[in-house]
Amino acid sequence: GAGVSQSPSNKVTEKGKDVELRCDPISGHTALYWYRQSLGQGLEFLIYFQGNSAPDKSGLPSDRFSAERTGGSVSTLTIQRTQQEDSAVYLCASSSDRYTGNTIYFGEGSWLTVV
Amino acid sequence: AQSVTQPDIHITVSEGASLELRCNYSYGATPYLFWYVQSPGQGLQLLLKYFSGDTLVQGIKGFEAEFKRSQSSFNLRKPSVHWSDAAEYFCAVGAPKAAGNKLTFGGGTRVLVKP
Lengths: 115, 115
Hints:
The complex is a heterodimer of chains A (115) and B (115). Chain A has strands at 5-7, 10-13, 19-24, 31-38, 42-50, 65-69, 75-79, 88-95, 105-106, 110-114. With 115 residues, chain A is an all-beta fold. In chain A, a hairpin with a 5-residue loop joins strand 6 and strand 7. With 115 residues, chain B is mainly beta. In chain B, strands 2, 5, 6, 10, 11 and 12 form a six-stranded mixed β-sheet that branches. A four-stranded antiparallel β-sheet of chain B has the order 3-9-8-7, with no helix packed on it. The chains are: A mainly beta (115), B mainly beta (115). The interface between A and B is medium-sized, with 27 and 27 residues.
């Protein structure tokens, strides 16, 4: 499709398990972002990738969270040893370049529930 | 640090009535300002954005927003609401021309439309 694609759309996992969330950005978009949307916290920036530059990880809440982007396209967000407070919608987004003002296109999100 | 406040968590409006959603921001200068809409089960869609110039900005779906520097506000309006406007609306700010395109979002306002 033409938009940002995320999988899975829903994931239920047991506390302590690892999860991987996948994002396929819009073709040709060099910038890719992960945001987290949780009750009471709104939308929080997690991490941002731009081309081959080192990612901006300043929003990752703990070292249990990591992300990679392979070949400048698909990205995977990994949460290790999940906790209940990790339950949220994880939104991936992409834009044509990295400068503020370029429209950011969001995917529909991956809804994570940790039980 | 930049921040965004959306004072109204919920707003209920009758179909055909006007709608105004409030957004106040904190930033050292004039930021880039955005309004996004999130329909149930959907990702965020950009409604409009303000960078500079004319303080009244037109967006998609009949929405407009007005930037008021003296009030640090960027309120969203629609003259006549349709049932399909029921959604959650997010105001966001970004640093002008900053690399990274990190946006800071408000907590959102959920709009319910009565028939």
